[in-house]
Design goal:
Helix content is about 35%, strand content about 20%. It is built from 25 helices and 20 strands. Strands 2, 3, 4, 5, 8, 15 and 16 form a 7-stranded mixed beta sheet that branches. A 6-stranded antiparallel beta sheet has the order 11-10-9-20-19-18. Strands 1-6-7 form a 3-stranded antiparallel beta sheet, with no helix packed on it. β19 and β20 form a beta hairpin. The radius of gyration is 37 Å and the shape is elongated. Pfam families: PBP_dimer, Transpeptidase.
Length: about 725
């Protein structure tokens, strides 16, 4: 019988089993080491519970004028900041404040009584506790528990009661050296968890910056960095339109808090709070730097990692010529000072100028000045450029171009229609007349010599009235609507569409009396803004296109390689000219008014001929004088009629490149006190514009702009006819 062979495991298989055995042994050994030797360390690592991403602000974008001169810039500042953790206690911030007070000086002027009481409680706990005796405390706690208040609510009520019982004598215990500690602690406590809060950024000396940097290890949460401050390069020039930003203490405006928080803003971010700074906040604010704070289970920051460096805000290029703006403001100031020297001009305190390109709507200058006195009686001329669009006045005869065109389009007159200029005697109304009786005149002479009666007769015809001396004048009230509808096509009585907030539409009169319709025809009933007047005359100048006034020309990317602020980044968005509407009037009619305006300024009998005839830039325009009741800051003392002076125009008359309005409310109170400040300002601002143009032509080529056409009409913009 044969023996059975025992099966043999191959040698290689044995080796495989042996290697696997060694690997498992090593793995078990490693797990043992991790669990026994490093277990506590890795347990703490696992307890890291949160990665918190925090956004930190970056400098705002710059604002330039049309020739790329910096108007608004950022100044770098040394800054000391503090970032508190989610578990920081008041006692800890107090200790940090005490240490910081040794290294920096902090003004104490912003400390409130509540700040001092909180500090007194924190630093004098035994005295604070004694404010509510133990027996009273126990009774109150029992009472509030019966009212089902939580322990937290009870503690809050006890704290508030303690605050009420702190006396002035108690607060006198706080020494002067403690006040600086309190001022610093106030800043440390005002921030939000894990968000850097500025402790000091104004007047941080190099020594302060250096010594704090050296002691950061003993100042948890404190850091030294670079902050920024807005710098308005040209001082008060154009300042009210540029607007302003909030401080880090103000932070986000309460009325727009939800809007900003939804867009990743922090509560203490600085944002634009008025006009250009606010209107273009989304552009100027920039992309915030992002930092990831890795915290442990207790909320303490273990590690900070930068995710994104951020990018400063985009740059805004304005249509404004800042050099022209400076000259215009100086001219207004000089003329106001001269005018105030004469008698009967006590109420004169302001003047406005708007200069714009009638072909594009670009605003080149937008200026206003208020003549006031400071607390010492010294004359101060304040910037009031905003008044060009936020205040309205009776403009007088400057609107007669719109009246003539309305008469032509409604068919009550034709080019060349002759009407007799004569005093009008209407029952129940003071005599209506021009400053002189002119006899038979056509519309050109009526504009040239500023006939009131010619305009009255246009209005009467639109209202379906027949004039009979000393008789009544029944007028269809619909005439008010008809005239205002045509006036609105020029921008009178409607918003101009400018890219700034808070523009008003003016003030329409609310009467339907026949005499007031006649007043409407000569600009002495409805009130308009200086900006509306500039848009109106631009519409006549360019042949009937109402252009949207624009204050911003371009938005550009910031240039990281820019060293001196003159090298701008690429254009992100350019703002093209926008035609809001083409007036519903024949070109032939507009040309007749243009000729009438030319005669106003370039002929001896024109009402502005003495100031503009012979000027090389060949202007055209219309003067205005309006009787108006004073409505200024001294109206409680003066309830008296005054005279507003206005002037609108453009140049050159045959190829206009600049249009303007000058408005001087309450210029004088009687004819014997007359000073032609409107014409003086008008002539000087046009001189300044063309002088600068000549100067720049020598330096390099100037912009060439074509007139608008029907093909450029914008359907996106409102048509307020």
């Amino acid at each position: 019988m044969k023996k059975k062979k025992k099966p043999q495991v191959p040698f290689r298989l044995n080796m495989l089993f042996f290697v696997v055995f060694l690997l498992f042994s090593a793995l078990i050994l490693r797990l043992g080491v991790v669990q026994i030797v490093y277990g506590e360390h890795y347990r703490k690592e696992v307890e890291r519970t949160e990665n918190v991403t925090v956004s930190t602000p970056v400098p705002r974008g710059k604002i330039y004028d049309r020739y790329h001169r910096v108007i608004v810039d950022n100044i770098p500042l040394n800054a000391i900041t503090y970032t508190r953790s989610q578990t920081t206690k008041p006692e800890e911030t107090l200790e940090i404040a005490r240490k910081l007070a040794q290294y920096i000086e902090k003004p104490t002027d912003k400390i409130t009584e509540r700040d001092m009481k909180d500090y007194w409680i924190l630093t004098r706990p035994k005295k604070a506790k004694a404010k509510i005796p133990k027996s009273e405390r126990e009774k109150l706690q029992k009472k509030w528990k019966e009212e089902e208040l939580s322990n937290k609510e009870i503690d809050k009520k006890l704290y508030e009661l303690t605050l009420e019982r702190i006396t002035e004598e108690d607060l006198k215990e706080i020494k002067n050296e403690e006040l600086e500690v309190l001022a610093i602690k106030r800043e440390l406590d005002s921030g939000y968890a894990l968000t850097p809060q500025i402790v000091k950024n104004q007047g941080v000396t190099n020594d302060e910056y250096a010594v704090v940097s050296e002691h950061l290890e003993e100042l948890p949460g404190v850091s030294t960095t670079t902050d920024w401050e807005r710098r308005y390069v040209y001082g008060n020039t154009f300042r009210s339109v540029l607007g302003s930003i909030t401080s880090s203490e103000e932070g986000l405006p309460r009325e727009r808090l939800d809007y900003f928080l939804a867009r990743d803003y922090s509560r203490n971010d600085r944002v634009g709070k008025s006009y250009l700074e606010a209107q273009y906040e989304d552009v100027l604010h920039g992309q915030k730097a992002k930092v990831k704070n890795i915290t442990d289970k207790a909320g303490n920051v273990i590690e900070t990692k930068e995710i994104y460096k951020g990018q400063r805000g985009k740059d805004v290029v304005l249509t404004i010529d800042i050099e022209l703006q400076q000259r215009v403001e100086k001219i207004i100031e000089e003329e106001l000072r001269i005018a105030k020297q004469g008698g009967g001009r006590e109420l004169l305190d302001r003047a406005f100028v708007v200069m714009m390109n009638p072909k594009t709507g670009e605003i080149l200058s937008m200026a206003g000045k208020l003549y006031t006195r400071d607390e010492n009686g010294k004359v101060v001329l304040r910037d009031y450029a905003l008044g060009t669009m936020t205040s309205a006045y009776a403009m007088g005869s400057a609107v007669k171009g719109a009246t003539v065109l309305t008469g032509m389009q409604t068919g009550v007159i034709q080019p060349g229609t002759v009407l007799r200029d004569e005093p009008l005697y209407i029952k129940g109304t003071p005599v209506k007349k021009s400053y002189e009786t002119m006899g038979p005149i056509n519309e050109l002479t009526a504009l040239q010599r500023s006939s009131n009666v010619y305009m009255f007769k246009i209005a009467m015809a639109i209202g379906g009235a027949t004039y009979r001396p000393h008789g009544s004048l029944p007028i269809d009230p619909e005439a008010f609507t008809i005239m205002r509808r045509y006036f609105s096509q020029f921008g009178l009585g409607v918003k101009t569409g400018i890219d700034l907030p808070n523009e008003i539409i003016g003030w329409p009169g609310n009467s339907k009396l026949p005499g007031h319709l006649l007043d409407l025809a000569i600009g002495q009933f409805d009130m308009y803004t200086p900006l509306q007047m500039a848009q109106y005359v631009s519409t006549i100048a360019n042949g009937g296109y109402r252009m949207k006034p624009q204050i911003v020309k371009e938005i550009r990317e910031p240039n990281s390689d820019d060293k001196d602020g003159t090298q701008l980044g690429p254009v992100i968005r350019g703002f093209e000219p926008v035609v809001l509407n083409r007036v519903d009037m024949k070109t032939e009619y507009i040309k007749r008014v243009q000729e009438g305006f030319r005669r106003v300024m370039q002929t001896p009998r024109g009402t502005a001929g003495a100031y503009f005839a012979g000027k090389p830039y060949r202007p055209a325009g219309k003067t205005g004088t309006a009787e108006a009741f004073y409505d200024g800051p001294m109206r409680s003392k003066f309830m008296t009629p005054t005279l507003n002076l206005t002037l609108v125009g453009y140049a050159p008359y045959d190829d206009p490149e600049i249009a303007f309005s000058v408005v001087v409310p309450w210029a004088y109170q009687s004819e014997r006190n007359r000073y032609p400040i409107n014409n003086k300002i008008g002539a000087k601002i046009l001189d300044a514009y063309f002088e600068l143009k000549q100067q720049r032509m020598k330096e390099g080529p100037t912009e060439q702009l074509s007139a608008p056409t029907d093909s450029t009409l914008s359907t996106a913009e409102e048509n307020e006819q």
